[in-house]
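Here is one such protein, fold included:

. . .
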Amino acid sequence: GRKSLRQKVVEELKHYYNGFHLLWIDTKVAARMVWRLLHGQVLTRRERRRLLRTCADLFRLVPFLVFVIVPFMEFLLPVFLKLFPEMLPSTFETESKKEEKQKKKLNAKLELAKFLQETIAEMAKRNKADTG
């Protein structure tokens, strides 16, 4: 059914609380990784990706905080998210947005695979014609 305005507001507040909490946890983990790097240890590929993602999220947080801090600016947030979809830190993404991104990536990979397969088939035909 439909949700009341109060329920929607509570859900949004929970969403932002969880997003900030996850970002705080990621920041603590990233700080430990930077500490390890400064002391000469090597990061794994996964750790390096997580560190880069966290740093990018922290840089994205600055314009996002303007919307949270300035009164009534949060009403413009959907407009800016429509114009700049990558503005929101990754910890604030909803499941539907994550699934949508995964579907787009998968479709792009399938198109690339199809293109490469057609190219290889065309090259094989040319090679057969040249040698035949």
Remarks:
- Residues 95-131 form the longest helix (37 residues).
- Residues 6 and 12 are 10 Å apart (CA to CA).
- The mean pLDDT is 88.
- Helices lie at 5-38, 45-69, 77-83, 95-131.
